[in-house]
Amino acid sequence: MRRNGDVIARTLASITGGLETALFAETLAGKPGLLQRLDPRTKILSFLALILATSLSVNPVGLVGLYALALLLACAGQVPLGWFVKRVWVFMPFFTGVIAIPALFNLVTPGQPVLVLASGLSGNFGPISLPADVSITEQGLRTASFLVLRVADSVSFGLLLVMTTPWAHVTKALRVLHVPQIFILILAMTHRYVFLLLHTATSMLLARESRRVGRLKGSQKRRWLAGVLGSLMGKSYHLSNEVYLAMLSRGFQGEPRLANAFRMRPLDYVWLMFSVLPLAGSMVRW
Amino acid sequence: MHIPDGYLSPVTCAVMYAASTPFWAMAARRTRELMASRMVPLLSVFSAFAFVIMMFNIPLPGGTSGHAVGGTLIAVVLGPWAAIVGVSVALLIQAVFFGDGGILTFGANAFNMAIVLPMVGYGVYRLIAGGSPASSWRRVAGAGIGGYLGLNAGAFFTAVEFGLQPLLFHTADGTPLYSPFGLSTAIPAMMVPHLLVAGVAEAVVTVLVVRYLQASHPALLEKVTPEQPATALNLRWLWGMVAALVILSPLGLLAPGTAWGEWGTDQLEGVGLTFIPQGLEQLEGFWSAPLAEYSLGTWEPILAYALSGAIGVLVIAFITWLLTRQRVVAPRTR
After folding, report:
1. What is the DSSP letter of A214?
2. Could you tell me which of A73, A82, A5 has the C-alpha nearest to residue A36?
3. Which residue has the higher pLDDT, A58 or B307?
4. Phi/psi of residue A123, nearest 5 degrees
5. In this complex, do B103 and A193 lie within 8 Å of one another by their Cβ atoms?
6. Contact A218 B41 (CB under 8 A)
7. pLDDT of amino acid A177
8. Residues A225 and B204 sit within 8 Å (Cβ to Cβ)
9. β-strand A123-125 against B57-59: which pairing, if any?
10. With contacts defined as CB-CB under 8 Å, which chain A residues touch B44?
């Protein structure tokens, strides 16, 4: 919901941004950190356990502790700390803040006032009746901090998992979660074609944009973008036919066979034990 | 509409995974039946295409812009089951790879955007387009209206999932643990922008791309996959689901209070209103429904609730039947 402005430039920017992140992730995944040395299967299970612990925790102190753990793991995974912290917190005000900030006030979360912002407002405005004071409540503070901390923790753990594991390993390791092989193959191939199609889309947009003189009206831009998407759809269909023939001619019979060279090492078992601790802790209510 | 981790309780996430799983299983079976060994490349490339659609920023009339999901568009070309797989895979890649949408909430996101959206969108499309030829304007209208309604249906489910959090999950003193806003806030907050902006973006993309395909790739709007006569089976499924909903409807009796916005004047005081608006007082009693308050006299309330639901469904079905009696020609099968 932003101004019309230059939608083409924004689309291009978001595509290149995505490609950049992917490239950065591949670089990080190749570094010799602790997280990179773990077996991908262990890593998926353990990070799921950590995210679940975040989700189950009903204690703000526990949530702060989990964030500290995420920072520690980022160091262990040689993820640049500044980037890691910024990536999580820069977007926070836009999405979570919009939801968390109104929850601070007694209008949404009634309770013990901590800070009274305005008083003597009492009255009815149509169907809305205002309370006498507008204040930030203790309950509201707790609600908002729960939400913000929980989102920060989950996003951090998710980010750590993704940034330190090559996509090919993520998909293969999904087999421990009993994801059918056919889905794993589709996931792996989709990832491959996402980049191809993003590249094609960028080329189409740039080719036209670089030949454009003057300004386009909104309706012209809409038609053009829809044309790009439509012809991309045609290309996708054509491409899928060619890929199908290529697979067929190489002996594909409908059942994928994935090579699996993962090996569990002592480090993996130690790590797995360790990662279950926060989950156990979060289930204890005190 | 991408719900990040932290907004929904783990229980809700588990429920949403459980709700999505049968659809995924069904989609896997149907696509395999329909496409055989072509399924892998076709779905892979179209999942990638679904991902790319979501990156496009669409300028809208009135100076704003929005993103589309494209679920209805894919359902129009490949059928609803393939759309479920395609959009699910695209959402998974967005969640895992780009951090857009959570990992625990993936089940919920997939349910809203990859299952509800294309199912509703495709249903509406079929209802309007019927067996019309690929170049017909009914295809365009059906796809556009389907896209709009499908996206808003998805947004509505999202809003309900948000809105249930403070009701169901809070600490002993009532502090909400997850998303803090109840249904009365979550539904309007979610629906207004989706009705005004995101739904329009979805409809615009669907209409313009379908028109482009009619002009440039009409073959894609013929049956790409040798799909079975969809109506018979889909309808049976739909009726099964309606029946399940009717049977489950007495669950609402467990909830304390009345649905938001459905109070009688005597209940308004409890909601925090200190006076009864005069107009409301006058209007109440203006219309007394034949099955007022969904009860049939002295009957057991639960049975009465389910029966009222069934009668309501039958009435709606009858009206729909009357309206659609000019039946469209059965879809061609190849």
Report:
1. S
2. A73
3. A58
4. 160, 170
5. no
6. no
7. 75
8. no
9. unpaired
10. 185-186, 189-190, 192-193, 240, 243
Please compute Rg for chain B using Cα positions: 22
Buried b (16+ CB within 10 A) or exposed e, B250-287: beeeeeeeeeeeebeeeebeeeebeeeeeeeeeeeeee
Average pLDDT of B200-211? Answer: 89
Those residues with Cβ within 8 angstroms of residue A252's Cβ, 6 or more apart along the chain or in another chain: B37, B40
Residue B86's identity, in one-letter code, is: G
Contacting residues of B for A143, CB less than 8 Å apart = 175-176, 180
Residues B13, B161: Cα–Cα separation, whole Å? 10
Q: What are the backbone angles phi and psi of residue A134, rounded to the nearest 5°? A: -105, 120
The answer to whether residue A244 neighbours chain B at the CB level (below 8 Å) is yes
Cα angle B119, B93, A65; round to 5: 115
Please check whether residue A2 touches B, CB under 8 A.
yes
| Average pLDDT rounded to a whole number, residues B29-44 | 79
Q: Token match 């010799």: residue? A: A32
Min mean pLDDT across A2-16, B48-62, B144-158 is at A2-16
Query: How many other C-beta atoms lie within 10 A of the C-beta of residue A113?
Result: 17
Residues A133-143 pLDDT 10s: 677 777 777 77
E strands, chain A, are 2-3, 113-119, 123-125, 128-130, 133-137
| pLDDT tens for each residue of A162-174 | 888 887 788 778 8
pLDDT at A5: 53
Are B216 and A182 inside 8 Å of each other by CB? Answer: no
Q: Is B147 left (phi over 0), alpha (psi -120 to 50) or beta?
A: alpha
Residues of B in contact with A147 (CB under 8 A): 6-7, 178-180
- Supply the pLDDT for residue B305: 56
Instruction: Note the pLDDT of residue A248.
Output: 85
